[in-house]
Amino acid sequence: MRVLHTFAEVREASVGITSLVPTMGYLHEGHLSLMATARGESDTVVVSLFVNPLQFNDQEDLARYPRDLDRDGRLAREAGVDLLFAPPLEVMYPMPALTRVTVSSLVTEMEGAYRPGHFEGVATVVAKLLAGLQPQRAYLGRKDAQQLAVIRRMAFDLSFPVDIVGGQTVRESDGLALSSRNVFLDRNERDRALGISRGLMAAADAFETGARDAHTLEGKVREMVTGAEVDYVTLADAHTAVPLSGVDRDAFLAVAARVGSTRLIDNVPFLAEPGGAISVDRGFRLSGPSILYGDRHAIDY
């Protein structure tokens, strides 16, 4: 694996079908699952590693975001990545970015309402990556369902010749959705955070026994998330991120909640299948502790 720092270096080194897995680093099994899928479908797998300041509206959150380039490089190499693109800030933004990418109506609800400017920063940096690296495919996780919808619409509207591929959510063995921010949770906070995934699984159970309306599904989540400060629980269209009254198409049930000083998001997607059936995707669980924790064994499974 080669570690490169400029767009030109990556374009010159890429051969054949090139896939991109964009990340902000501090890799976990969710990222690695995307890399594995890309590895099976590509000649060149590129992983970008850049903590993008444009998508943080809280500078304290930006400052404490976990970073470990050596660790991430080792994990990417073990995953069979060909090129690790780790640009310094002056390569990504050699001058203050006067051009921003906004995907209007997709960012008014949920995360857009609670994190002003966040999706503008996300769409801008991903547009730069797609334009500068020129991959044929880009892989993003379904855990950030609204973000996935935003990037898909941005790529379509701007005619980027790229397929945006959504990867299944990876969960820790107790159900908590993998996130680099999980390392900030102490034992008590983690116990409280589990209400998020338990609520979503309760909603998935209700869906599979016939519930389709948003009030019922959202209510199942709220019943379980008792140890966290809930920002929203919303059933939304998977393509437009517009709130829905019921599941009758591709959709996702999303929740955001703050546990202590850590804000977590999660969702379960509802996938429309040929013939009209709709299934719920619960993600898949690890069998033991995540690589996020290294040699620490603070979590009882």
What does this structure look like?
The chain has 301 residues and is an alpha/beta fold. α7 (118-133) packs across α8. The chain has ten helices and twelve strands. The relative contact order is 0.14. The chain has two domains: 2-167, Rossmann fold, CATH 3.40.50.620; 180-293, Pantoate--beta-alanine Ligase, Chain: A,domain 2. The protein has helices at residues 7-13, 29-41, 59-64, 69-78, 89-92, 111-114, 118-133, 145-157, 187-208, 214-224; strands at 2-4, 18-23, 44-49, 83-85, 137-141, 163-167, 170-171, 229-237, 251-259, 262-272, 278-280, 284-285. A hairpin with a 2-residue loop joins β9 (251-259) and β10 (262-272). It has a six-stranded parallel sheet, sandwiched between helices. Helix content is 35%, strand content 21%.
CATH topology of the largest domain: Rossmann fold
| Oligomer classification | single chain
Q: So what's the CATH class of the largest domain?
A: Alpha Beta
Radius of gyration: 19 Å
Query: How much beta, percentage-wise?
Result: 15-25%
Question: Any idea what the CATH superfamily of the largest domain is called?
Answer: HUPs
How is the biggest beta sheet arranged?
6 strands, parallel
CATH architecture of the largest domain: 3-Layer(aba) Sandwich
Helix content: 25-40%
H/E series: EHEHEHHEHHHEHEEHHEEEEE
How many DSSP helices?
Answer: 10
- The structural class is alpha/beta
Task: Give the overall form.
Answer: globular
End-to-end separation in angstroms reads: 34 Å
Q: What count of structural domains?
A: 2
Mean pLDDT: 95
State the strand order across the main sheet. Answer: 1-4-3-2-5-6
Low-pLDDT sequence parts? 296-301
Number of strands: 12
